[in-house]
Write a structure and sequence with these properties.
Elements lengths: L4 H17 L5 H8 L4 H13 L3 E3 L7 E3 L5 E11 L4 E2 L13 E5 L9 E7 L13 E5 L9 E6 L4 E10 L2 E5 L8 E4 L3 E11 L4
Parallel strand pairs: 3-6
Antiparallel strand pairs: 1-2, 3-5, 4-9, 6-7, 7-12, 8-9, 8-12, 9-10, 10-11
Helix pairs in contact: 1-2, 1-3, 2-3
Length: about 210
Amino acid sequence: MTLSSRQEKILKFIRRFTHEHGFPPTYREIGKAVGISSTSVVNYNLDVLERKKHIRRDRHVSRGLRLTDTVDVISIPLVGRIAAGEPVPIPESSVDFSLFDETIEIVSSMLGDPEGLYALQVSGQSMIDALVNDGDIVLMRYQNHANNGDMVAARLRDENETTLKRFYREGAQVRLQPANPSMDPIYVPAENVEIQGKVVMVIRTLN
């Protein structure tokens, strides 16, 4: 079955976007790329592509488009929110990634080994100069150590709070540095900081 020129453009855009970013586009991103202002019209054309078996869709998954000729897609659990601002309280117990139903689908070749990967939604503006905005999704690889300059999820043990910042070890203390000139760094004793993961990818959300 043949596709319309618009559907061909949509399919090519999905393939190019997924290849470049490692995850599929949103309906709004598709519409903007091919000149469609209505998400319902985008949805209609995606229905056609799905019926013709060019794509598969999972409506329970964020960015749940998948090309039928793509086989190296992995699902990463979206486990909650992290502050890109002042640290916020976190749950007392360790996170069990298997307990979370919501996932983000990513092309595995963009990330390598999927072991220890999880996703968090960003809350706040402290990392905007690192191109991480409020509402974006950060993909994290779990690790308990960091090098200077790494963007990490850092837990402050005494306060039982966590934040997204760049990590710098400075003698007996740690500087958690925002990427926003209007915000001050956080200085804490090194023994009070627990690294919970390093950012490996940022997924931008568009309004």
